[in-house]
Amino acid sequence: MTTPQAPSTPDQTWGAAPAPGQAPKPAWPTGKKVAAGAVAAVIVAGGGAAIWAASSSAATGTQAGPGGTMGGPGGMTGGPGGGMGGLGSALHGEYVSSDGNGGYVTKIMQTGQVTALSATSLTAKSDDGFSKTYTITSAQATGLATGDTVTVVATESGSTATATSVTDGESGGQGQGTPPSGVPGRTG
Asked: pTM here?
């Protein structure tokens, strides 16, 4: 199906006066101008909010999860499959974030079941069989038990992975070590 084309005016320049015998195009009514301005303001505000969110999550330090989202793999929603980027179902991986001093640090994230626990170390095993041992503080170990599901965010130096946050529960918490309501959590 073809749409009939309006006859073109030869050599008419955009913004020039209309050709003789042709009526000028009517200006936008005030309501349309206001609506267009409001749409533009919403787009600018949304873009500014997105930039602010990206820059502030990158600057939050050691508790930010993959991609700078707060609280680890669950992101803002804290639930499986949720959050920005859909990392809520991630079992383990590495990512790079700002160190807060103009540099970068590689972090490790793992969600799994605690298979070994002491006051200074924790071993977690993910559903796919991946297992890793982390150095933890006694504060991070408080309240944990073998068999608990945890989300660990750590930095690695050589062969030692040091936990920067340990959150009890699969959700990974919401924000800087703050767990979802009803789920105990800790950072350290």
From this structure: 0.49
